[in-house]
């Protein structure tokens, strides 16, 4: 019992009066009226009231859930153990926590140097990887459609949602490395088809109207000679599907040369889909060629012939280090010299798949032949300045196959380890330990036992906050099929999700949440302590949120930068 205005009132009524009375002005009308319907926003608004507003037990449970979400984000950011609310932090040692070691360890030990399970190799491991990628939305199609030849040639049905995200992250890293932080490289774009007459030995696919071709073949009055002549003329005048991005970059050369005031060197970068003919006797016994597709990342570098070889060596080293940076086993990426039919020198970068090495990127010194062929009779506009001299530049073509690169990282990160959840030795735990920069999804939100509606509303609120901050999240709480924790963790490991956050009834009651790391498999149960401070005199609870809430919003935006280090 307590006194309010000289009258004695039960404590239960006092709790309701405290929230709806002295602090009623601080609550939005949608909360005062009880029409919100969203547990997350009730938690957020109530938690912003601060220490001056006494809360009833339900409000305290709601506040604990919000504080749980805040601490999850701070823990993902910090890399520290122990207290995070002002106390002295204790650094975690390597392997002692689900969050791994201190950030400095990433600088001291290159990725792949730390002790780990050996990736599975051989045909058995390849089949297990392809089957898992089908099941976990990295690849689309049947087992027959996803053969080794189909994956390498680009004749498979395509990628699933997680595969698209993985390739998008790989392309973003390439773009940042080659374009975004270089003052001499500019982005360009071009059409998927190239106009112009057909050249001798040109094997590119041509774009021909099916209706036009059908009319020609149905014309019975046309002789065989007339039919052949008409078809040859049709092929000469039809556009062809591009086999590389080089042609599009050369088209932009003159305009971009003026952009840099004719000063060499400079580069043009582009990412796009290219097409190439594929002969597959298994699929087409009659010898008809199929169309293979690949997503290519291209850098065309224009420099003087005097420095072309030095620049080729520079880009070779840069590209090889870039591929190795995201690998669990960097030594699987290698390079070798090569030479084409015309005697032009270049280099190829390879990844060592279980069946052998396959090229993933090529670097060529094409000289000035390509430019002179593109602009016949207009050589004067091709000259760029190399110091005090004006020269026609040599062309360095650097082409990376992002689809093969994505396949290489899937094989590189795939591991079969002993399953700690079962005693059967023939059952293994499958994990995709993709680099944090490349992982399609960073955090998975899921619920345990407890009131389903309230827990899902809390997860939905946290899901929206993470998405607004640019963090990719998997909404596991929407799953209607009940699964054990072992099945849940195995699923997220196969999806290469970095962290799993489990919201349970304990989160609402006492502020306990579960956090699990993909790489260490260690789980932490964290207790949420009070850390909010009341607003100062004269400040509204809504216009001046608690410092912890402001810190939460600020820190959550940096989660990606932390987990990608």
Automatic annotation (TrEMBL):
<protein>
    <submittedName>
        <fullName>DEAD-box helicase 5</fullName>
    </submittedName>
</protein>
<dbReference type="GO" id="GO:0005739">
    <property type="term" value="C:mitochondrion"/>
</dbReference>
<feature type="domain" description="Anticodon-binding">
    <location>
        <begin position="452"/>
        <end position="530"/>
    </location>
</feature>
<keyword id="KW-0496">Mitochondrion</keyword>
<dbReference type="Pfam" id="PF03129">
    <property type="entry name" value="HGTP_anticodon"/>
</dbReference>
<keyword id="KW-0809">Transit peptide</keyword>
<keyword id="KW-0235">DNA replication</keyword>
<dbReference type="InterPro" id="IPR027031">
    <property type="entry name" value="Gly-tRNA_synthase/POLG2"/>
</dbReference>
<feature type="compositionally biased region" description="Low complexity">
    <location>
        <begin position="94"/>
        <end position="104"/>
    </location>
</feature>
<dbReference type="InterPro" id="IPR045864">
    <property type="entry name" value="aa-tRNA-synth_II/BPL/LPL"/>
</dbReference>
<dbReference type="InterPro" id="IPR036621">
    <property type="entry name" value="Anticodon-bd_dom_sf"/>
</dbReference>
<dbReference type="GO" id="GO:0006260">
    <property type="term" value="P:DNA replication"/>
</dbReference>
<dbReference type="InterPro" id="IPR042064">
    <property type="entry name" value="POLG2_C"/>
</dbReference>
<dbReference type="InterPro" id="IPR004154">
    <property type="entry name" value="Anticodon-bd"/>
</dbReference>
<feature type="region of interest" description="Disordered">
    <location>
        <begin position="1"/>
        <end position="28"/>
    </location>
</feature>
<feature type="region of interest" description="Disordered">
    <location>
        <begin position="87"/>
        <end position="126"/>
    </location>
</feature>
<feature type="compositionally biased region" description="Basic and acidic residues">
    <location>
        <begin position="105"/>
        <end position="119"/>
    </location>
</feature>
């Amino acid at each position: 019992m307590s006194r309010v205005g000289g009258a004695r009132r039960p404590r239960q009524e006092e709790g309701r009066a405290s929230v709806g009375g002295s602090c009623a002005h601080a609550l939005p009308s949608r909360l005062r009226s009880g029409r919100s319907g969203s547990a997350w926003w009730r938690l957020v608004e109530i938690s912003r009231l601060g220490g001056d507003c006494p809360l009833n037990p339900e409000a305290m449970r709601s506040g604990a859930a919000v504080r749980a979400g805040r601490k999850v984000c701070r823990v993902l950011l910090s890399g520290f153990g122990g207290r995070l609310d002002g106390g002295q932090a204790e650094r975690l040692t390597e392997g002692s926590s689900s969050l791994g070691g201190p950030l400095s360890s990433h600088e001291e030990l290159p990725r792949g140097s730390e002790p780990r399970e050996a990736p599975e190799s051989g045909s058995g491991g390849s089949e297990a990887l392809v089957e898992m990628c089908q099941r976990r939305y990295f690849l689309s199609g049947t087992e027959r459609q996803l053969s080794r030849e189909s994956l390498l040639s680009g004749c498979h049905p395509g990628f699933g949602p997680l595969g698209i995200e993985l390739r998008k992250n790989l392309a973003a890293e390439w773009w940042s490395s080659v374009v975004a932080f270089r003052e001499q490289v500019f982005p360009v774009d071009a059409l998927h088809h190239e106009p112009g007459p057909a050249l001798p030995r040109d094997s590119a696919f041509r774009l021909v109207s099916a209706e036009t071709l059908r009319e020609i073949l149905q014309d019975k009055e046309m002789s065989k000679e007339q039919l052949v002549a008409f078809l040859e003329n049709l092929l000469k005048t039809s556009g062809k599907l591009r086999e590389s991005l080089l042609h599009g970059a050369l088209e932009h050369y003159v305009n971009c040369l003026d952009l840099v005031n004719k000063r060499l060197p400079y580069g043009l970068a582009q990412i796009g889909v290219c097409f190439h003919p594929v002969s597959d006797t298994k699929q087409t016994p009659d010898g008809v060629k199929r169309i293979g597709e690949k997503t290519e990342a291209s850098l065309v570098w224009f420099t003087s012939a005097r420095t072309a070889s030095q620049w080729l060596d520079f880009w070779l080293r840069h590209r090889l280090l870039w591929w190795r940076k995201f690998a669990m086993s960097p030594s699987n990426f290698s390079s070798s010299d090569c030479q084409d039919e015309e005697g032009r020198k270049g280099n190829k970068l390879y990844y060592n798949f279980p069946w052998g090495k396959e090229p993933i990127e090529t670097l060529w010194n094409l000289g000035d032949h390509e430019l002179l062929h593109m602009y016949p009779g207009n050589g004067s506009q091709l000259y760029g300045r190399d110091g005090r001299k004006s020269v026609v530049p040599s062309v360095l073509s650097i082409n990376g196959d992002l689809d093969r690169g994505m396949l290489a990282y899937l094989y590189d990160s795939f591991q079969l380890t002993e399953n700690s959840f079962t005693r059967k030795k023939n059952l293994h735990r499958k994990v995709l330990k993709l680099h944090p920069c490349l992982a399609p999804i960073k955090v998975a939100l899921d619920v345990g036992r407890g009131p389903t509606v309230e827990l899902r509303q809390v997860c939905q609120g946290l899901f929206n906050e993470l998405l607004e901050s640019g963090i990719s999240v998997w909404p596991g709480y929407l799953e209607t099929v009940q699964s054990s924790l072992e099945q849940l963790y195995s699923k997220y490991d196969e999806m290469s999700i970095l962290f799993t956050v489990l919201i349970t009834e304990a989160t609402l009651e006492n502020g306990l949440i579960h956090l699990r790391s993909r790489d260490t498999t260690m789980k932490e149960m964290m207790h949420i302590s009070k850390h909010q401070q009341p607003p100062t005199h004269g400040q509204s609870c809504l216009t001046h949120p608690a410092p912890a809430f402001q810190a939460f919003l600020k820190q959550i935006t940096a989660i990606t930068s932390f987990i990608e280090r």
